[in-house]
Protein: Alpha-1,4 glucan phosphorylase
Organism: Kangsaoukella pontilimi
Amino acid sequence: MSTSALKDSVLSHLKYSLGKDPEHATTYDWRVALSLAARDRIVDPWFESTRATYRADAKRVYYLSMEFLIGRLLEDALVNTGVYDDAKAVFDDLGLNFGEILHDEPDAALGNGGLGRLAACFLESLSTLGIPAMGYGIRYEHGLFRQRFEGGRQVEEAEDWLTQEHVWEFERPEAAFEIGFGGQVYENGGRAVWRPQEAVIAQAFDTPVVGWKGEWANTLRLWGALPKTVLDLQRFNAGDYAAAAEPEALARTISRVLYPDDTTEEGKHLRLKQEYFFTAASLRDLIRRFEAEHDDLRDLPKRVAIQLNDTHPAIAGPELVRILHDERGMEFETAMEIARGCLNYTNHTLLPEALERWSDGLMGYLLPRHLQLIERIDTAHQTQHPGIAIREHGEVKMGELSFIMANRVNGVSALHSDLMKVTVFKDLHDMHPDRIVNQTNGVTPRRWLRTCNPRLSGLITDAIGDGWIKDAERLSELEPHVNDAGFLDRFVQAKRENKVDLGQWIAESMGISVDPDAMFDVQIKRIHEYKRQHLNILETIALWQEMRDNPNGDWTPRVKIFGGKAAPGYVFAKEIIYLINSVASVINNDPVTSKWLKVVYPANYNVTLAERLIPAANLSEQISTAGKEASGTGNMKFALNGALTIGTLDGANVEIREHVGADNFFLFGMTAEEVMERRTVEGHAWDAISKDPRLARAVDALRNGTFAGGDHDRFRGIADNISGPDYFLVASDFSDYWRASREVDQAFRDTGHWARMAALNTARSGWFSSDRTIRSYASEIWDALPSKPLRNI
Ligand SMILES: CCc1ccc([C@H](C)CC(=O)N[C@@H]2O[C@H](CO)[C@@H](O)[C@H](O)[C@H]2O)cc1
């Protein structure tokens, strides 16, 4: 498509789709017009992908997830369909600010963090690989809350991405299903019949997910909840207007808002309704699609692979058995076999508080037939494998149910999958030793390098061509260039220019000036004790104290950048946020140290902010307590973008260090085994503090009001925790973290050496592409293949 054709398409959409005259068009109008023009180019490959799948009667992959952390779609679509430069030329030509138009798009924040973003990367890779697939989720009216800081404290505001037209979705009135809740189960001719007490309509909204080069596009189908009856006319005519509108309000509540917790299961009534709502609608939809082309449901596993993104859609097991056994009359055992032949389960966390357990009461109330079927599934499994129960202490354990109903169960990094076998799923693993496999996470190199870092990707393509974008492991072809001074200079230049851009944005949006030649040290992720943002800020305090002791010391200038939201109910995490902001305001206004050290915490960390921060990072903080971070995916994005990692042997850090080389990774801290050992030591925190005066002094600063205007109590909670129970071993890992951080200081001063290490990280991180991960799922779990050979780039 030529620039002029694109221009015509944009102008005609502005006129005929938005009814706007260019003279009076707003940034929003131009952004929507461009999006419609870009969308037009995706519809044909989208249709063709569907046709090809039907022609080939190909096996389909269904990815069921409560979260899809998509972010923005326009720039990704322009790059993936190869018209980004044309679009830029069109708006330069129109004398409009292209960057401003791109930034007008709201993030689709339909997720909390790692699990949701992984789902989005997976969909893009499935399309790039041409594997027929569909993502199923919920069309939340309100995504993850907007974070604002008030006096350094997190304040949540409702997110409202749908208050403006969402141009990337197509409503599908024909794809709607009635989903029931509650009610009773009756016996009828030897068959169980469930009569729900209430019902809502699940309405489909489709978003095309286009792959690299726009050759294939799969569908993300999100369900919105609608009332069976829009208005209770009797009540309306009786003047009881509120009551008249109640059915609609009640129904829409199901898809109203994303639960903002990412580690603690609340066990909330509405959460279980959400999980059943989208899971049941998705199973209805995929069975209808199967039966349109096939007449024997026993062949379902040959044509359908379902991936459960954690336990959130685990009700899929009992629901599939209910449909096959209750509705279709299959023998229970056959229904179980067919269901297990389709289902696979990915575990994303070992944190006990994150493992979902629904009370019998709630499950029996909302899903009475499912509770009966879970009982039967439990009994059947215990007959063969006594000792493990799905139902225990009046609760239904969704992890056990998912494991027992799955063909394959996987962890998301090598360490995590091994830990699953010896912790949460030890007994089940002993019973089914070949069921757990590992699938180390990955990230899409399109969004997380090609699109977010055009300077570096331009440099790479100049050096080795652009084959790496589709096949990221070809980044290894950069290795010979790493010894070429010219390449390294351009590598350093690209990073510096990204840092200058970020510095400008920080100055404009936060009024803080940062030195682009300082080390940009970045920790961006959800705020959680196991991710140890409080270890990072404690080290920052100790560094600041040492700088004040010796202001003329030859310090390595650093900018500590934090980003992340805390679950609204997570008090300790919110205290950590308050501490970071309080430390920042003292340090950033300290004339003695401000040339050496700055702390920056932009609010409302999301996908778009990550795309702005990662290309400008020198150092990636991956400092979780070993054994706690299942994988991490930010760690991969930083390595791809030429940042060095300071981290523990946790999650995928282990594999990143193996791939980039131990010399190009700053390792510190206890291993997962040593962590278990250290916890058994009585007073392990005090012991560590007593042995490290630097640590003791930093903790004292939390107690003596240094960062609290003299208020000794403000951060007592954090100080007491770190010097007391300290379950995540902040005190015990501090000294080694300090040691590694000083090594980082030394290394950063040798710009050539640092550049070489950074370039090797980029060159050796191609394996962490989500294309590699998806290829592995496809061959080891789904037995799914690309539907048509995609033209080699
Ligand atoms: C029920 C509340 C809830 C909601 C979400 C979750 C997710 C599983 C939390 C999550 O996002 N886990 C992260 O998943 C990433 C993708 O695999 C991993 O890289 C991270 O290590 C893991 O913390 C747990 C509990």
